[in-house]
């Protein structure tokens, strides 16, 4: 743990006291979003010290030209990046002719931030003494509407404490923004049009290259003691990409002056005319009014929490951690639009480009399947189906593959590969397996097989063709091998026979072949359509099966474990416990050469295979592999602790499971990896949910039935969660004496608890 300033609270993230050193970290932690757009917790007023400005719009990206020192054939030409969108929150403020800036105030008192996760709003309050001697109290509330998801609302209150004050508000919208991580320091936005009204303004701009058109808008209302004083701007300043209004007011000591600002974005993805769309959004928001918009926000979040909440009794930090994770997941992706996906940083920062990784299929889909309608998870699968042609093109153009072999990109916005590190782009091919596994997992959990004949089988065939061509036959081993890869453990590059990669390659081929047979039997029209479309023959499938049936897996007979890759035991096997803590994290302290030669593992690799395919291995095999590899794992990937927590719980290593749970749930709140100022780890947050539901709850789906093996950490008094399993809502509540299962509705649900069948109805108690 590297920071400890967030106050423990069951439902809120709270910071008390102003510290300029924490500003960028807090901008990440207090971020807000609504699935359509998001906003770092930047100050509305001017701030002259270090800050990381960030507003983001779902689906809007820019192909930033790749920047490398030495070009290799096959490099993607660009790295797609979520754009820092035009600024709609800005409000410059002058008080008695002095600019309000917390960096220049002579004193800042009672500074407090709160992200209220239960109700979906962000609040900031403080008292400040300006250089001119004026003392003020400020309270700012901001939220992004879930119902009216193109609109955000700010209510900014100022109360002079020691004298009357002339307050000048200067709200603005500004498209002249840049990205923190731009490769070439280019501007990404081309201004098109500025429109000004009485209290509303619009800036329309489009992205260079991708030509997404966005209208950024604002509407301002000035109030005194809660009453609209119908003030019009005294001046209006504008450039080609910015509009700023000036409102002058005088407020007596002890009275409160307020500006309410409605702002946001309309985009060409959803509107033929973005300006007309923006005018309609303002009209709707103004008609509802601030109080109704806020109440609607509270109601909308109550509905989300009704299904997705996890309660923990007796451990406030653990409770705060899981709710923070669930809150951020729901802020990032709503499931409404199959054109969208889940970026590793969501709406909290720009690292990783805001693109789609294998995280979605490996970690996020279980959360959305269990806490939403199954259509949400199906939309995530459809996202990949819609990009199948691009995956085939990627394998053909960059790797020389043929015959419809598909390599899905490691990083993408639109289906094209846009990751610019060779050892990841071309070698971390295991991501293909996660996409196939997600199709299997969706069918296993929802029972909805229709996706496979409609769309999924084409994806599985493309992936099977890839693995067939990527493997090569070793005369020495008399088996098929896969050379030159990077596994989930990215601290190993260009290795041979990564166990996880080889295992999931075999599984993908076997699964694809099984589904071809099933579709032929049960959906003959779809089978005929698909095989004709992809030109697949029985002979080709037999060639696939040769590779799967004779796949090589490195093992150590002496240790009774699978080897992460050929030669792993040749390393200097010093366990993590004997590594000097001053050397951590090694990715920030060591040269890359030293990292690659070390035995240290960034994240679960062999154990990722054991997580996906738990039923393929015995409990004793899991124990041996877990105990060996955990001792070398530094968990410098956010995706690692959750897998280890789940497996530790399965092995009854409850102290370890709890420690890993805390690490995954509070990874950002406590800034374990010393990087939270760059944004939060959104996709791994789904792993936190899995740590409780699959880890402590022991939930599995086997033979179309839910299985549970509930356990509870000694630090907790109890915990509970809900899941939507095949359109039945099941609540599970666990304490040290009993587990109860409650079904929402009159239809019974047969479940398996600790190996025994139980009929769950409105209330079932297991002692």
TrEMBL record:
InterPro entries: 6-hairpin_glycosidase_sf (IPR008928), 6hp_glycosidase-like_sf (IPR012341), Gal_mutarotase_sf_dom (IPR011013), GH65_N (IPR037018), Glyco_hydro_65_C (IPR005194), Glyco_hydro_65_M (IPR005195), Glyco_hydro_65_N (IPR005196), Malt_Pase/Glycosyl_Hdrlase (IPR017045). The keyword Hydrolase applies. It comes from the Bacteria. Residues 699-758 form the Glycoside hydrolase family 65 C-terminal domain. GO terms for molecular function: hydrolase activity. Residues 323-690 form the Glycoside hydrolase family 65 central catalytic domain. Keywords: Hydrolase. Residues 14-268 form the Glycoside hydrolase family 65 N-terminal domain. Belongs to the glycosyl hydrolase 65 family. This is Glycoside hydrolase family 65 protein. The lineage of its organism: Bacteria, Pseudomonadati, Bacteroidota, Flavobacteriia, Flavobacteriales.
